[in-house]
């Protein structure tokens, strides 16, 4: 079973797009780390919240990705721009459109 992480983060006013760019720029190396799905989204009626949806081979692969140099750089750059309000949900991914078979 694959591991899923769905979450949100709130940015300080005026910084949402900057944080989105940091998250997207750090996405390049995630596929080789075991990531199958990495989607960053925003809502037109909320200029501070960023939604993140990820699907990984395993939870361990996700956790290890947090130590990659690009990920560490994105986290360091983003943290001062965030309010500290986060949501998260860990799920077991059973399948879906766009995911390769296990």
Estimate the mean pLDDT confidence: 94
Distance between the termini: 8 Å
Strand order of the largest sheet: 2-3-1-4
Contiguous runs where pLDDT drops below 50 for at least 5 residues: none
Structure summary:
This protein has 102 residues and is α+β, with helices and mostly antiparallel strands.
Please describe the structure with a list of short key phrases separated by commas or semicolons:
single chain, 102 residues, alpha+beta, 4-stranded antiparallel β-sheet, 4 strands, globular
Could you explain the architecture of this structure?
This protein is of the alpha+beta class. Helix content is 26%, strand content 41%. The protein has 3 helices and 4 strands. Strands 2-3-1-4 form a 4-stranded antiparallel beta sheet. Strand 2 and strand 3 form a beta hairpin. The chain starts with a strand and ends in a 9-residue tail after the last strand. The relative contact order is 0.32.
List the helices and strands and how they pair.
Elements: E1 2-11, H1 16-25, E2 35-43, E3 46-56, H2 59-65, H3 69-78, E4 82-93
Antiparallel strand pairs: 1-3, 1-4, 2-3
Helix pairs in contact: 1-3
